[in-house]
Amino acid sequence: MDSTPSPSSSSAFDLVSRALGRYIPRGGAAAPVGTAEAQGDRTPLRPPENPAAGRQEQILGALNLDTDLIVTRCNLEAPVFAGLDVGAGKPFVDLLPPGDVPTVTRRLRQVIESGEAHVARIQRLRRGDGSELVVSMSILPSAAPEEGLTVSVIAMARRLHLYAAETAIGTSLDIGETAQSLAESLLAWGDVAAVDLDFAVWTGEGVTGKAQGRIRLRRAALVPDRVWPEGYMIPGDDLPGDASRLLAQAVLRDDAPQTIVIPDREALERVFGSPRVVRALVPGDRSAGLACIPLVLDGAPPVVLGVAEVWRRADCPFRDGELFDLQELVARTAHHVDLARQHQREHTQVLALQRRLLPRTGGDTIDIASVYQPATPDSAGVGGDWVNSFPLPDGRTALVVGDVVGHGLGAAATMGQLSMEARALLSAGLAPDQVLEHLDETVTVLDDAESGLAAGYSALGSTCCIALYDPVGHHVTLSSAGHLPPILVSPDGRADPLSIRPHPGLGAEFALREPFDVYTIGVPPGSMLALYTDGLVEEDRDLSIDEGIDRLSGIVSTVHPWDTLQQAARRIVSTLAPAPQRDDVTLLLARMIGYRKEDTATWRLPARSDAPARARTQVAALLRRWGTRDETRDNALLLVSELVTNAVRFAEGPVTVRLIRAGHGLLCEVGDSGNGRPRLRRGDLLDNGGRGLSIVHRLTTRWGVRWTDTGKVVWAEVAR
């Protein structure tokens, strides 16, 4: 007799069946799990804990699937698999939670196509009553692809489940997902599991001990996902005050956190008393028992973060061994909840700083809109993206965007420092490239051994782009330190990224440092400039950075001149980076309006002794045409005369005089080729030096100096 087994008898399904101590004949099928006998009250929902129970302790099962993932044979007769409604002819995916169907289906088909096994996947299977069974699932290919595959399942032992649950719970820093993972793990011991957290924990506030009057619980997680009775607390709901106090007092008996068990519904109603509390906490009308396990941080005194609750049928009471496992799991994972709380607190703080830096509004000469969309809370943390825009005292507008390396409070602190420093330097009249030189030095100082590296954080390689909009000359002066190129949309709707030479960024090594280039780009009224960070164009990993920028250019070009800029910015972000995303997303849109031609005038005068008189004549004629008040006209004439006199006296070359009618003020500018900074100082009554600037200071609401490639411009504003 030939002892070689047939291919069918050597299939993975038959090998697993032999391990079960059973043989399923070819073409036969085991009785489907879920028969009346399997679902009767005499069959326990969980495996007995007695090791001497023999075959009742069987935890291995097998299913054979065809290429359409339909069950052809199954062997899941062990009591541990009771309630799994599966049999020949049923789709395997009916056993899976809905959220797991796409991933598991993809894995099954990969095994069919590649012939390579996928082993030891921790998976949940749905019972007919809505509860779930945790198994270790392996997918084994058949000898011939057309024969499908075999799925072996091992019902996870308690200790293995504890380990797997703790590992799964620690994978997220989002407090809601952490609570959800804990509730899903607790479901292995009951029919319903919930996690209620102290409101201070939920919001990320500090929790230092048991504080009287602070008890307020919010439902953070609830499984399984189903339609619950009216009045029952679901995730996001605050528990009634008396329910919160009852739960907190129950687990803090004798001033020490303890697990409590309430065996049946009658006892629950006696303990809770109020029908409203019963409706809020009891998940149905049938008789049920409850185990309450406090989430505790060890300390003196211990800190209770919340309460985990497990409900099960009253005819299946909690055994001592199960309660011990429940307490161990909750104790092991309480610190994960606290870590998520700390992350939530940091995330909230950094997000508040990000929001504070966002531009508030534009002005008469420019329309500004911005969107900041933080990364998902369970990512590395809120990043160092920042964007700012603000009017400069001389009538120009600064547009600044930057990206600090790293995430969290370290990146946020650097971001805030760089943003404020850039604003101060720009307001002092420095050019964009000069500001970047100072920021470069700041990043280097922040990253030295004492302040940066010792704290485990480095900002080297951070990027920044600064653009200054001149509403009179209708141009933008721009410098970039390693940042992605802005996109300019012309009035006719054409959008192109600006051609900017690459730069290594802020804080580069001395050998890599390069001068910061300055670009001057014409932006006629109706033009739009888009500044952004890499999260907006790198969210899709299938696209290169250049393809991402081209895609952004195409979408920006669709913004119509009469579209509301803020709505357009939100639409662009939602299209390119729909939440959730791995990195922060920042977008700044600026639509150039500028001054009307009739609101400005410029004269170029030779640096001669008659220049002040000629300037007064030109300015007087203009102010009469503008209908300026006599007092304003007299102040402006005196102001222009003093500034032109100083320019002729201390500088060489021609003098440029510019007058701008802006809002409620009159802006006077006098430019020359000198590089000395005018300084206001105290002088004696008989001291002739410095009297011109004293007059300027008294006549104006504000004045200052900005530097140009050919010299400087002294500007001053007179109230109209």
Give structural notes:
With 720 residues, this protein is an alpha+beta fold. 31% of the residues lie in helices and 25% in strands. It has 17 helices and 25 strands. Strands 2-1-5-4-3 form a 5-stranded antiparallel sheet, sandwiched between helices. A hairpin with a 5-residue loop joins strand 1 and strand 2. Helix 4 packs parallel to helix 10, helix 10 runs parallel beside helix 11 and helix 15 (611-626) packs antiparallel against helix 16 (630-650). Residues 1-9, 21-56 and 449-456 have low confidence and may be disordered.
Provide the helix percentage: 25-40%
Number of extended strands: 25
- The helix-and-strand class reads alpha+beta
Beta-strand residue percentage? 15-25%
Q: Strand arrangement, largest sheet?
A: 2-1-5-4-3
Q: Mind telling me the C-alpha Rg?
A: 36 Å
Given the C-alpha coordinates, what overall shape results? elongated
* Number of continuous helical runs: 17
Largest sheet, in brief, is: 5 strands, antiparallel
Mean pLDDT: 78
In the predicted model, the low-confidence regions spanning at least 5 consecutive residues are 1-9, 21-56, 449-456
Distance between termini? Answer: 114 Å
Question: What attributes characterize this protein structure?
Answer:
single chain, 720 residues, alpha+beta, 5-stranded antiparallel sheet, 17 helices, 25 strands, 25% strand
What is the gist of this entry?
By secondary structure, this protein is α+β, with helices and mostly antiparallel strands. The chain is built from 17 helices and 25 strands. The longest helix has 38 residues.
